[in-house]
Specification:
single chain; alpha+beta; 5-stranded antiparallel sheet; 32% strand
Amino acid sequence: MLVAVLLVGGLFGAVRADELTRFQALVSAEARAAFARNAASPCPDATVSLGRARPVILAGRPDLKALVQPTQVKGCGRASLQSINVVRAGGDPPWRMASPLPGTSLADPALQQKALLSVVAHVRRTLPGACARPSVGDIRVVARPGTVWFRSRGVEMPRPTARPVVAVPLPAALAARRRSLVLSQAWMELWPLGWCGTPHEDAVVFIPRRDGGSPLYMLADLPTARPATAAVVSPPAPRSAPPSP
């Protein structure tokens, strides 16, 4: 089943008005495939609702027409927010589609995949079992950029640009590199995984670089409480998992 609103005039040059029906069918199929892949379980009766697409500019290829198509997928007792990245590249069909991880992660797809390797490695060390692959639930942001306050023994850390909602111990290796990092714009996400039927959640902190390169990421202990208010929430001691290079 496809639930969608037809848009007159196409979508930002990436989809012409006469292509909308075909585009919606293809993007819905991509969303269903991602839904099954992320859950490590097929769900042929899943329904897809299309949200409002938004245009994007591709780094290095501003000539290409591209957009992000949010979708809500439901079925088999679960629901997920799945955004589909779409580029008009010519050919038949004229679109190339890719599915990042589900949810609302602020990391780009390439960075998501790098962080996922670390999260899966940590889950394998933490939980018993030898599953072929984990399931991945909807990632959510629990501390937006500017609300993470790093703490490091003996080192004065800059305050975040907004009122902090979570405090995170900064490993010594990153504290030594702090001048090359934009610590005041770091953010935290919760990544839920299922491993051999056991649910697990990791907190991942992303730290932008001053040179504009791909942000660093590190695993952090889960906050002792969900940061629903502006109070600072202090997690337990830092994990031994190394930060990204």
